[in-house]
């Protein structure tokens, strides 16, 4: 089961997730987006990490030159985006696409597609055996995780980090219950 934690904004979340063997850590890399992490702060966090691969969350991207700067400053392993940003990417990195359309066959035409993030309600519209794409489902709590992880088409879950109360002071309840359960399985 692939585990991605996105919207990471602090070293506490990043280190906790790395210690819990999270596969992918996502950082909002487009200015003026909620949870944006400037390159300098990202570099400070990345210097402390070992293990997870880095995902540049590029929702709201406005140009190919902006993408080039993000790739240069963040050096991500993956790009995460919605269908709106697809025309701006060049296929140089694997893509994680938030898919809002129900037509999964059309996603097969996306170059360098690694995975699709889908809403859990979309799972009811597909047959588990005909999907050949990695589907990741966003979850907010353990009940949601348990409801989707038993589906053969689901290859992973997407969780989100939260803000620190103050540097080093962090409540991990929102992640720990889920990550500990997944670690046991």
From TrEMBL:
InterPro entries: Aldolase_TIM, RibuloseP-bd_barrel. The keyword Isomerase applies. GO terms for molecular function: isomerase activity. Keywords: Isomerase. This is N-(5'-phosphoribosyl)anthranilate isomerase. The lineage of its organism: Bacteria, Pseudomonadati, Bacteroidota, Cytophagia, Cytophagales.
């Amino acid at each position: 089961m692939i585990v991605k934690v996105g919207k990471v904004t602090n070293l506490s979340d990043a280190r906790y997730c790395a210690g819990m063997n999270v596969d992918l850590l996502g950082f909002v890399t487009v200015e003026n987006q909620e949870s944006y992490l400037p390159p300098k702060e990202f570099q400070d966090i990345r210097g402390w990490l070992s293990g997870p691969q880095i995902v540049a969350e590029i929702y709201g991207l406005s140009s190919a030159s902006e993408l080039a700067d993000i790739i240069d400053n963040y050096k991500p392993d993956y790009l995460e985006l919605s269908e709106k940003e697809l025309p701006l990417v060049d296929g140089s990195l694997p893509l994680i696409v938030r898919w809002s359309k129900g037509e999964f066959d059309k996603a097969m035409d996306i170059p360098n597609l690694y995975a699709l993030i889908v809403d859990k309600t979309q799972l009811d519209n597909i047959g588990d055996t005909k999907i050949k794409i990695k589907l990741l489902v966003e979850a907010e709590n353990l009940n949601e995780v348990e409801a989707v992880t038993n589906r053969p088409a689901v290859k992973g879950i997407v969780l989100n980090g939260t803000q620190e109360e103050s540097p080093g002071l962090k409540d991990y309840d929102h992640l720990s219950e889920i990550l500990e359960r997944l670690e046991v399985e």
